[in-house]
Specification:
The chain is an alpha/beta fold. The protein has a domain of about 170 residues: TIM Barrel, CATH 3.20.20.100. About 35% of the residues lie in helices and about 15% in strands. The strands form three sheets. It has a seven-stranded parallel β-sheet, covered by helices on one side. A two-stranded antiparallel sheet has the order 1-2. A hairpin with a 5-residue loop joins strand 6 and strand 7. Helix 1 crosses helix 2 and helix 7 crosses helix 8. The protein is globular, with a radius of gyration of 18 Å. The structure holds NADP nicotinamide-adenine-dinucleotide phosphate (NAP). NADP nicotinamide-adenine-dinucleotide phosphate binds next to helix 9.
């Protein structure tokens, strides 16, 4: 796959980690077992390995993952595909969730659970130290909800001091939780749900941009419910692009601290997503797209 400019680069604050703004989210590489989502191996493990290698060969140097995808499966596939890792590859993982046998997502915030999660990530990725670990809030599974993150963050900061974790990020969090966390440890990135149709974090994106902190939207394409909008389709037709490419380009144009991690199990979609880095949306069409989220 040809090398293209992946939307410029961004340096995580206070770190030597610089990533291209177009990255890759690995959650879609795990399988599915009936109602159990992100569970077990994918149907085509070799295809998943090939996809990761294509992504990196195309210049992707930011991969988002977690050991609770599969569980363990996604990290093991990343290791098989890419280890020993290129020097510039930044793998970002997340902790504070464990999976029930029924596929459920269970909060795992205790000292023992967080420590085990860091060691699981290290072992399954084949690393001695994790570049970035996001602490995911679980006061409500599907959206940010208030509650103190002090205790688990203190544990993660201790693991950082022990040299197992280089940098810390947060996920599924409120502005108050981010402010609390920044009193405890430097925060390099925030990963929350955000896309054309889900704009709760509009002000937060700008606040973090002022402080140079990366904002990494999860479900950039709508996740398990892909984005669908007549306006999006119309804009895509006018630009000669696909709706998903426009959704990614809109995020990249929205703010320079946004790093995108679209997930796909398809090499065709990977190629389309990477090419979205080069799509420029004229301002009048950005205004049409802004109206989808109702905040124009
Ligand atoms: N912090 C958190 O709580 C959290 C939660 C969810 C996800 N994440 C992270 O965020 C990443 C991105 O989220 P996500 O993967 O759930 O959702 P997403 O990127 O919004 O969307 C993925 C879905 O879009 C499809 N897709 C991808 N590219 C496409 C294209 N060009 N055209 C048409 N369909 C396309 C994929 O299907 P195909 O496989 O068929 O392409 C898949 O069904 C994840 O991989 C994960 O690393 C984090």
């Amino acid at each position: 796959m040809e090398q293209i400019d992946l939307a410029g680069s961004f340096t995580l604050p206070g770190t030597s980690l610089t990533v291209n703004r177009m990255g890759y989210g690995a959650m879609q590489l795990a399988g599915r077992d009936g109602n159990k989502l992100v569970w077990g191996p994918p149907r085509d493990v070799d295809g998943a390995i090939a996809l990761l290698r294509k992504a990196v060969a195309s210049g992707v140097n930011h991969i988002d993952t977690s050991d609770f995808y599969g569980p363990h499966v996604t990290n093991q596939i990343i290791k098989k595909a890419l280890h020993p890792y290129p020097d510039d590859l930044v793998i970002v993982t997340k902790v504070s969730v464990r999976r029930g046998e029924d596929g459920s997502w269970i909060p795992a915030f205790s000292r023992e659970e967080l420590t085990a999660a860091v060691h699981d990530n290290l072992r399954n990725l084949g690393l001695d130290v994790l570049d970035v670990v996001n602490l995911r809030s679980m006061f409500s599974i599907h959206e940010p909800a208030e509650g103190s993150m002090e205790a688990p963050l203190t544990v993660l900061a201790e693991l950082q001091q022990k040299g197992l974790v280089r940098h810390i990020g947060l996920s599924n969090v409120t502005p108050a939780q981010i402010a609390e966390a920044r009193q405890i440890a430097p925060i390099v990135c925030v990963q929350n749900q955000y896309n054309l149709a889900h704009r709760t974090d509009d002000a937060l994106v700008a606040d973090l941009a002022r402080d140079g902190i990366a904002y990494v939207p999860f479900f950039p394409l709508g996740g398990f419910t892909p984005l669908q909008s007549t306006t999006l389709s119309d804009v895509a037709t006018r630009l000669g692009a696909t709706p998903m490419q426009v959704a990614l380009a809109w995020l990249l144009q929205r703010s320079p601290n946004i790093l995108v991690i679209p997930g796909t199990s398809s090499i065709k979609h990977l190629r389309e997503n990477l090419q979205a880095s080069m799509l420029q949306i004229p301002s009048e069409l950005v205004a049409d797209l802004d109206a989808i989220g109702g905040n124009a």
